[in-house]
Amino acid sequence: MPEAVHHTLSVLVENRAGVLARVANLFSRRAYNIYSLAVAPTHDPRFSRITVVVDVESSPLEQIVKQLDKLVNVVAISELDPSSSVERELLVAMVKADATTRAGVVAYVASVEGRVLSEGPDRLVVSFDGPPAEVDAVEARLAEFGIVELRRTGRVALPKLAAEATVSGS
Question: How confident is the model at residue 164 (pLDDT cuts 50, 70, 90)?
Fold first, then answer.
């Protein structure tokens, strides 16, 4: 089976009740596959940002964008190319960690700059944030210890800054 081709869309929408439902219904009606979805208000309370990662094997990207653009509450849509954007995802997992494995779990989480959020007698709740590929790798490694429960936020992204824009005092 060929690997899916994903594209990240950043959709600025009016911050109103029902907007997310209308966007989700559009994807459902058109049988577009959503790989990842993250939604939150922006710094301007009038707007929210939907970051949606879509599988373009199921439908051409241009068609998805055209359909989204027809929705009344959509203000702007932009594609975020992974090579020119910064992508992050958060993983929170409850992992088996008895007396014999606890030190290994804690050491691994520290080695990837993750955090232990909660401790129980035979389990730990840990978190890690990073690029999606690194989150995948951390999830695979934690599975070796035994994942009891796992949550991932979905991808969020912003365009990378130009190198000259990050230099101060120029």
Answer: very low
Domain residue spans of the chain: 6-80, 86-157
Let me know if the fold of 6-80 is the same as that of 86-157. yes
Domain 86-157 -> CATH class: alpha beta
3-state SS of 19-63 is: HHHHHHHHHHHCCCEEEEEEEEECCCCCEEEEEEEEECCCCCHHH
Residue 138 DSSP label: H
Which residue is it, tokens 């959509």? 74
CATH class of the domain comprising 6-80? alpha beta
- How many Å apart are CA 152 and CA 130, to the nearest integer? 11
The three-class DSSP label of residue 144 is: helix
Band (61; pLDDT cuts 50, 70, 90): confident
Q: Strand, helix or coil at 64?
A: helix
Q: Which residue has the tokens 């994807």?
A: 27
The pLDDT tens digits for 25-46 are 998 888 888 889 999 999 999 9
Structure tokens of 60? 């051409």
Which residues lie closer than 8 Å to 71 by C-beta, 6 or more apart? 13, 19, 22, 23, 26
